[in-house]
Write a structure and sequence with these properties.
Number of helices: 2
Strand order of the largest sheet: 1-4
Radius of gyration: 10 Å
Structural class: alpha+beta
Helix content: 10-25%
Number of strands: 4
Distance between the termini: 5 Å
Low-confidence stretches: none
């Protein structure tokens, strides 16, 4: 699995961070980022739910 965040679409709502805090964080401006080393989702079952929770659908999950 690979997580992609469209930085142009992200509005910084933080729903991904609230849903999967072991995978997502927010930068100093409040926009979402994947934590270093967690680009593959780190086996967190909530990653897909976090993508669905994004109000602007800025998170894409690609399966390998």
């Amino acid at each position: 699995m690979r997580i992609i965040i469209d930085e142009d679409m992200c509005i910084g709502s933080g729903q991904c961070v609230l849903t999967a805090p072991d995978v997502f964080t927010q930068d100093d401006d409040g926009f979402s980022q994947v934590l270093p080393g967690r680009e593959d989702g780190a086996g967190d079952p909530l990653v897909r739910e976090a993508a669905r929770a994004c109000p602007v659908q800025a998170i894409t999950i690609e399966d390998d």
